[in-house]
TrEMBL record:
Enzyme Commission identifier(s): 2.3.1.184
Domain of life, source organism: Bacteria
Keyword Ribonucleoprotein attributed: no
Recorded catalytic activity of this chain's protein: a fatty acyl-[ACP] + S-adenosyl-L-methionine = an N-acyl-L-homoserine lactone + S-methyl-5'-thioadenosine + holo-[ACP] + H(+)
Transmembrane residue ranges: none
A GO molecular-function descriptor: N-acyl homoserine lactone synthase activity
A GO BP annotation: quorum sensing
Keyword annotations: Autoinducer synthesis, Quorum sensing, S-adenosyl-L-methionine, Transferase
Protein's name according to its UniProt entry: Acyl-homoserine-lactone synthase
Family label: Belongs to the autoinducer synthase family.
């Protein structure tokens, strides 16, 4: 299930968030080599992990096996602050668009082959399922260029914001990706289920927002 954690419920989910901080450190520092953000406490936290951040945790038997973060684009965010060179124009800013970042899946939940990882698919489905009732229409993200086709196959209308650039030996492109009800239906089709991916408490919150 996908647990959505915001400023409103983070105090009740401290154990899960501790797992999330440590998972981020394992993925981005220990595996990907982002030495600039290494911390002695093995928790990867940055200036954007504030009251505006929305954390999506894939939880399996009380273990966090996947993570991503949404940030509002109507205020400073990662692309606009640290990577504006990926945009040929001004980075997007809208109350209806979020930034999707810090995307990672634990080693125990990774799969091989060309099919989209089920945990990553659940997280993306959770973003759309949670976001649509709140008036979200899409996200911006910095991602490997190979992800572009995958997003289009999921009926997410992804458009590059600039030309790809090499960052830490990976070809990265910034995208503006729109989603709607068709995207959710395609994601559900890919998952093979129309059941909600959201944890019960997150599902209730999504209904209340609609």
């Amino acid at each position: 299930m996908i647990q959505v954690i915001t400023a409103a419920n983070i105090d009740h989910n401290r154990d899960l968030m501790e797992q999330a901080w440590r998972l981020r450190h394992r993925i981005f520092v220990e595996e990907m080599g982002w030495a600039a953000i290494e911390r002695d406490d093995k928790r990867e936290i940055d200036e954007f992990d504030d009251e505006h951040a929305v954390h999506l945790l894939a939880v399996d038997d009380n273990e966090v096996v996947g993570y991503s973060r949404l940030l509002p684009t109507a205020r400073p965010y990662v692309l606009s602050t640290h990577l504006p060179q990926l945009c040929e124009g001004v980075p997007p800013s809208s109350p209806h668009i979020v930034e999707w970042s810090r995307i990672g899946v634990a080693g125990s939940a990774r799969t091989s082959g060309r099919r989209l990882n089920p945990t990553a698919l659940a997280i993306l489905t959770g973003i759309v399922e949670w976001g649509l009732p709140r008036g979200l229409k899409g996200f911006v993200s910095e991602m490997p260029t190979s992800w572009l086709l995958r997003l289009l196959q999921l009926h997410i209308h992804a458009l590059p914001l600039g030309l790809p650039q090499m960052i830490d030996d990976v070809e990265i492109v910034a995208v503006n990706a729109g989603f709607d009800g068709r995207s959710l239906r395609q994601l559900q089709k890919m998952r093979g289920s129309t059941d909600s991916v959201l944890a019960p408490e997150s599902r209730v919150a999504a209904r209340l927002a609609s």
